[in-house]
Design a protein that fits this description.
Probable nicotinate-nucleotide adenylyltransferase, binds adenosine-5'-triphosphate, nicotinate-nucleotide adenylyltransferase activity, binds magnesium ion, single chain, globular
Length: 195
């Protein structure tokens, strides 16, 4: 039997409750059998800053998702290494889940970038795309190909990884923005501190 697999890519530096709420909501609405979180490979840098090493981002994603029986984490992008392109992610997962239906879950900001920069026709051979609302970003559907992209309103969680990193740097609490185990891991490894 063909299964319905959600794919949630991200830098996850760190993963936060906005990611988890969006994935959970889409899992429910689209009746997905599983949602696979895929932390990106190690890019040289992302908008001018150094991204935390892949193994730390991978472990934080595992800690955040471990208690949910329908959430899992894939290493495909990390093991491929370098900059991550969505088409490579989907090609690899398509191979790993043969015969299953893939649903790529992405926030409004990321969806816009993916559809501008990628060979959209090839992307759509691998997956259906689900764009979720994200506070501060408007979902603009006027140039979306019909049938291959669904837009979904999810409960707005005004959280970003950037804001969480800045809070750690300023020694402000991140409890309840990020799962407890991940908060402890960040503290244990001294991630995002100024020095
Ligand atoms: P950064 O601030 O470092 O860019 P981020 O919070 O945007 O981090 P990413 O790892 O870049 O997190 O995002 C992974 C995916 O999750 C993207 O598709 C993004 O649009 C989506 N996303 C991020 N935050 C939210 C949120 N609060 N609500 C819904 N979707 C989100
Ligand atoms: Mg982002």
């Amino acid at each position: 039997m063909s299964r319905r697999i959600g794919v949630m890519g991200g830098t996850f530096d760190p993963i936060h409750n906005g990611h988890l709420v969006a994935a959970s909501e889409v899992q429910h609405r689209f009746d997905l059998d599983e949602v696979v979180f895929v932390p990106t490979g190690q890019p040289w840098q992302k908008t001018g800053r150094t991204v935390t090493r892949a193994e730390d981002r991978y472990l934080m994603t595992v800690i955040a998702t471990a208690s949910n029986p329908v959430f899992s984490v894939s290493r495909v992008d990390i093991d491929r290494g370098g900059e991550t392109y969505t088409v490579d992610t989907l090609r690899d997962l398509h191979r790993e889940y043969p015969g299953d239906e893939l649903f790529f879950i992405t926030g409004a900001d990321a969806l816009e970038q993916i559809l501008t920069w990628h060979n959209v026709d090839e992307l759509f051979t691998y997956a259906h795309f689900i764009g979720v609302t994200r506070p501060g970003y408007r979902l603009n559907d006027h140039h979306l190909p019909t049938g291959k992209v669904s837009l979904v309103e999810v409960t707005a969680m005004a959280i970003s990884s950037t804001a969480c990193r800045e809070r750690v740097e300023r020694e402000e609490p991140i409890w309840y923005l990020i799962p407890d185990g991940v908060v402890r891991y960040i503290d244990k490894r001294g991630l995002y501190r100024k020095d």
